[in-house]
Every structure is written in structure tokens, then in C-alpha cells.
Design a protein that fits this description.
Largest interface: A-B, 16 and 28 residues
CATH topology of the largest domain in chain A: Alpha-Beta Plaits
Strand order of the largest sheet of chain A: 2-3-1-4
CATH topology of the largest domain in chain B: Aspartate Aminotransferase, domain 2
Strand order of the largest sheet of chain B: 2-8-7-6-5-3-4
Helix content of chain A: 25-40%
Number of domains of chain A: 2
Helix content of chain B: 40-55%
CATH architecture of the largest domain in chain B: 3-Layer(aba) Sandwich
Largest sheet of chain B: 7 strands, mixed
Order of helices and strands of chain B: HHHEHHEHEHEHEHEEEHHHEEHEEEHE
Structural class of chain B: alpha/beta
Oligomer: heterodimer
Largest sheet of chain A: 4 strands, antiparallel
Number of domains of chain B: 2
Chain lengths: 168, 416
């Protein structure tokens, strides 16, 4: 790997983390490099799963779509040799689970889930999650409102451009 | 007393004689239109970082609503002194050699009123920021322009300075990096210029408001050059580096005689800079470095997009190395600066500033600011390209030379 390569990778990641819609030509110009190099680096990052996917930050509340999300604190018994990973992976495989993280502190895993109704989420927790082997307890918190998501403010009219159109 | 023109006779002829800023005229035109993408903005598109705004709100909650000392909060002056020493190795006594001003604009006014007497001459590069000449005139002195042009890359040379000096020359003002050209002056050239300045015993007023926004090479702080500390009035502020234009806070640094004299004017006219802005500036200096670096990185990436876009549409342009402006040569379209700006606005709804707003040497150029989002920049330059292509294909080509169809690099365009 060339010396500047790591740095370039980081720059590319920073750029597309903020705006995944920029095309490779634009990124190449922004970083003063060739488009081929950008394409190659992005491909490598994808292969290494450093770039794990491309998503859009959507405020579903505004679509009028009825969606319920909840954060569930999960306490589990770690298994010999596997620690928390095996249980965590089992939980990850449910499609309604959006994010799973191992936490320090009072509980072990935090699980973000999304469902159509509160009943659906509740039944997932009681039937699927709480009943899993090695899961000791769960605490479910329903999301009431999202203000900021993935570093982006969700509310309207926050920090719009208020500058005069022409200034010296 | 019924004829309104009578009142004009009561107005100081110097003020009456001042031309309203060319930018103002164009602003009125733009303000009437909807859906305009503006590349005409001379301020960051970032909002002041939250930690700075939050620090200011906290100070309000704590009741910091009073005057500060005329010179400004000592803690802020100390932080500025520390910063200048660490960045450029130039030391100022925060008690006597630094004055907090209401932006560089006030600092400039104070500096000129302090050092200029009627009849004195001030050397001002052209094109340059719109207020240098009027402020000189208001101080009763005479602006003498260092006329730079695209042909020599808007370069200020020692010879140009030397030639403009008369027995009446008192000072020179240089803004580095430059607004509107985005050009920077490197250390070697500044050394040559300051040599002339010292030889003729001039005062150097150094406007370094865009200093931190330098993308190619390193910014050189004029008072850090040999023999320049005491004959330089350094003007700087927080507007551009920390996206704090509306706070109106800046500073002047210089020898104690200059700063004391400037403080006298400041105390009778301004009293002090607003305390809320000073507290915000203090927070910016103490904890704003990371945010600043991120912003500079973003400007730099946009800058490269702009350079490419201008190349693509065939407008020659000196490489913009600082601030957030590009100053392309639009003479190939056969239009004057003002016509270009007006027609571009009318036909494509993109606002740029006609170059002649920055002095007659800016004629044939327009200022494009890249303090805009990448989406806006991309769309604006797409529109501008189709405008330019239409114009050029109309055969109105006067000075188009394909050989110049590139960003002019090192050597030709390092200086203002």
C-alpha cells in the first residue's frame, strides 16, 4: 500500500459519509486525483466491508407512514469462548432489527428495532427476543420523536441559508 | 429649504463624493429575483459552530451584558497574543499592543484615521476589497492604486510599489489572501515588498482576515518578517475563519503607539466591541481549531471543483489559492463584467459579482465565491457553462485565446 493511500481512503470515506450521491469524478477532482484511483479505492473499501452499504436518511414521520421504533436494552449471559457474539449474531439476523451494539454499563446489548405497530414490536420482544437462550432480561423504550439522525437534523427550517445574496 | 438638493450642500463633500459600493447596485438587482443560486456571497456558508454559539448563550445566562475595557476582554487579547506567537512566532503584549475591534472593517478605519493626515497617500492594490479606497478618502488621504492585471497574474511586484511611491506616501495596505482574486502572496515575494516598504519608511497595514483560508503553501504573517513588526498594523478577525461574520469582532495588533492611538478613536466612537461577540471569539480561539481545519478542508475540495468547472467552460483563471473566491477572465465572451453578471443572472439565475466592483482593474472578470454547497456549486457552474458556450458561439469573441484556457499555475499568479 502506498504511503498516502490510507490518508486518501480516509478522505474518500469522509466525503461519501456526508454525501453518498457525489460521483467518482467529483470526488476525484475534490481530492486532486484520478477517477480510476477513486473507483479502485471505493471498490476495495467495499470489498473489505469498510464501506458496508449506502443508505438514505429518511424522515418517515413526514411520509405519514405508521412506523414504530424502539430501543431495547438486553442483558445476556456470555458464553464460554463466544462471549456475547453468538447471541448478538442471533439477534442480528431478525430483519426487524436495525442496529445491534454491545454496550458497557448496566446492560449488554442495545437493539434498535422497527415495526409497523406497537403490538408488532411488543410481540417481537416477548416472543422472539426475550425468549432467546442466554437472554436474561429486556427493557423496551419506544421512540416518540427523532430530532437528529446520522448527524443530520431532521426538523425543517434549521439553519437554512440566511445570508444576503450578494456581499463584498 | 424646500428643495431637497439643498441638503446635499450641507453634506461633507468627501462623503458626497464617495461612490456607493458597486456590489450594492448588483445586490438590488439580485434581491428582486427568485430561485437564484448565488456565488456572490462574501461570507462562509457555514453557520458559526455550535460550541461557539452555545458559549455565547451561556455567557448571556450568566449575565455578561456589560461593557468591557476599551481594548476588549483581556482574556481574549491574551489568547490572541498566544495564538499569534504560536502560529507565526510574532509576539505582542496583550495589555498594550492588541485592540479588539468591531470586525476588520473598524480596525481598518481606526488604523487609517490614526496614521493618515490630509494629503497623505496610501498604496492600494487593484483589484481589492471595496472599502480600502473610501476609508482612505474618509481619513482625508489619497488612494494611489497599484494597478495589477491578469496579464501579470494580478501580481504586486516591488517595482510596482517602488514606482507608485511619492514623498507623500504614508502607508500600503495589502490583503493576503486577496478578495476578490483568491490569490496569495508567498513569503519570498512579501520579503521583497517589505524591503521596499522599509526602504521608504512606510507603514504596512496588513489585512489577513483570510489568512487561515490558505490552501496552497503557507500563510505568511507580515509582522513576522524581519523589521516589520513595529511598522505593521496587523488586522484580523473571526468572521471568515470561524464563520462569524455577523458577530462583528476582530482585532488590531501593532506597536503600542499605534494601538494606543487607535484605542483613543475606538473609545470615543465605539467604546468597546460587544461583549457577547468577544466571548464567542474567545471560545472560537480556545476550542475552534478542529472545526476550522474541517471547514478549510471543505473549502479546498470545493475550490478544486471550481477550478475544474472553469477550465471546462474555457474561462482562464489564475489559480485561487486562498479565501473562497475564484476570479475568472470572462473577456472571451465579449461581455463587460457588468453585462456578464447581469445576463448570467437573467438567463441562468446565477449571481456572481462583476469584477469592476473591486476597481477598474477588475473589468473583464467576475468574482465567483465557492462558499456554497457542492450541489449549488455544481448546478451553478453547469448553468454558467451553458451561458458561456452560448456567448462564445455567438461569435462575440474579442480576446479568446485557447492557449490560455487553463488555470495559470505557480509563478504567474502567486500574488494579488
Amino acid at each position: 500500500m502506498m504511503p498516502g493511500e490510507k490518508c486518501r481512503e480516509k478522505e474518500i470515506l469522509e466525503i461519501i459519509e456526508n454525501d453518498a450521491r457525489l460521483n467518482t469524478e467529483q470526488i476525484a477532482v475534490m481530492l486532486q486525483t484520478s477517477e480510476e484511483e477513486v473507483v479502485r479505492i471505493i471498490k476495495e473499501l467495499e470489498e473489505k466491508k469498510i464501506i458496508a452499504g449506502y443508505f438514505t436518511v429518511i424522515n418517515w414521520d413526514k411520509v405519514g407512514e405508521e412506523k414504530v421504533s424502539a430501543i431495547i436494552e438486553v442483558k445476556i449471559t456470555p458464553q464460554r469462548d463466544l462471549g456475547f457474539d453468538a447471541v448478538a449474531m442471533r439477534i442480528c439476523r431478525f430483519p426487524e432489527v436495525k442496529t445491534v451494539r454491545l454496550m458497557s454499563g448496566a446492560y449488554d446489548l442495545v437493539v434498535y428495532i422497527e415495526g409497523q405497530t406497537m403490538r408488532e414490536v411488543a410481540s417481537f420482544v416477548t416472543l422472539k427476543l426475550a425468549s432467546l437462550e442466554h437472554v436474561l432480561s429486556t427493557a423496551t423504550h419506544f421512540v416518540l420523536k427523532t430530532y437528529k439522525l446520522q448527524g443530520t437534523l431532521i426538523e425543517d427550517d434549521v439553519e437554512e441559508d440566511r445570508r444576503l445574496l450578494i456581499t463584498p | 429649504m424646500t428643495n431637497p438638493s439643498d441638503w446635499n450642500k450641507r453634506i461633507n463633500p468627501v462623503i458626497l463624493g464617495l461612490q456607493p459600493s458597486g456590489i450594492r447596485r448588483f445586490f438590488d438587482l439580485v434581491a428582486e429575483m427568485k430561485g437564484v443560486i448565488s456565488l456572490g456571497v462574501g461570507e462562509p456558508d457555514f453557520v458559526t459552530p455550535w460550541h461557539i454559539r452555545e458559549a455565547c448563550m451561556f455567557s448571556l445566562e450568566k449575565g455578561y451584558t456589560m461593557y468591557t475595557s476599551n481594548r476588549g476582554l483581556l482574556e481574549l487579547r491574551q489568547e490572541i497574543a498566544k495564538n499569534l506567537a504560536a502560529s507565526f512566532g510574532v509576539s505582542y503584549d496583550p495589555h498594550q499592543e492588541i485592540l479588539i475591534t468591531v470586525g476588520v472593517s473598524e480596525g481598518l478605519d481606526l488604523a487609517f484615521r490614526t496614521i493618515l493626515c490630509p494629503g497623505d497617500e496610501v498604496l492600494i492594490p487593484e483589484p481589492s476589497y471595496v472599502s480600502y479606497a473610501p476609508v482612505t478618502a474618509m481619513a482625508g488621504a489619497k488612494p494611489v492604486f497599484l494597478k495589477t492585471s491578469a496579464e501579470n497574474g494580478f501580481r504586486i511586484t516591488p517595482e510596482l510599489v517602488e514606482k507608485a511611491i511619492t514623498p507623500k506616501t504614508k502607508a500600503i495596505i495589502i490583503c493576503n489572501p486577496n478578495n476578490p482574486t483568491g490569490a496569495t502572496i508567498d513569503r519570498a515575494r512579501l520579503l521583497e515588498i517589505t524591503e521596499v516598504v522599509r526602504a521608504h519608511d512606510l507603514i504596512f497595514v496588513s489585512d489577513e482576515i483570510y489568512g487561515r483560508l490558505t490552501y496552497v503553501g503557507e500563510h505568511t504573517c507580515v509582522p513576522s518578517l524581519p523589521g516589520m513588526r513595529d511598522r505593521t498594523i496587523l488586522l484580523n478577525g473571526f468572521s471568515k475563519s470561524y464563520a462569524m461574520t455577523g458577530w462583528r469582532v476582530g482585532y488590531a495588533a501593532g506597536n503600542r503607539d499605534f494601538i494606543s492611538a487607535m484605542t483613543k478613536i475606538h473609545q470615543y466612537t465605539m467604546l468597546c466591541a460587544p461583549i457577547t461577540a468577544q466571548i464567542a471569539a474567545l471560545e472560537a480561539l480556545k476550542n475552534g481549531e478542529n472545526g476550522l481545519i474541517k471547514m478549510v478542508e471543505q473549502y479546498n475540495r470545493r475550490r478544486r471543483l471550481v477550478i475544474q468547472a472553469l477550465q471546462k467552460m474555457g474561462l482562464p483563471c489564475c489559480e485561487p489559492r486562498g479565501a473562497f473566491y475564484a476570479f475568472p477572465d470572462i473577456r472571451s465572451t465579449g461581455l463587460s463584467s457588468e453585462d456578464f453578471a447581469q445576463l448570467l443572472l437573467k438567463e441562468e439565475k446565477v449571481a456572481v459579482v462583476p469584477g469592476n466592483a473591486f476597481g477598474e482593474q477588475g473589468e473583464g472578470f467576475v468574482r465567483c465565491s465557492y462558499s456554497a454547497s457542492i450541489n449549488d456549486l455544481t448546478e451553478a457552474f453547469r448553468r454558467m457553462e451553458s451561458f458561456v458556450r452560448r456567448r462564445v458561439s455567438k461569435g462575440k469573441v474579442l480576446t479568446f485565446s485557447p492557449g490560455k484556457n487553463e488555470i495559470i499555475k505557480e509563478g504567474i499568479c502567486q500574488t494579488i
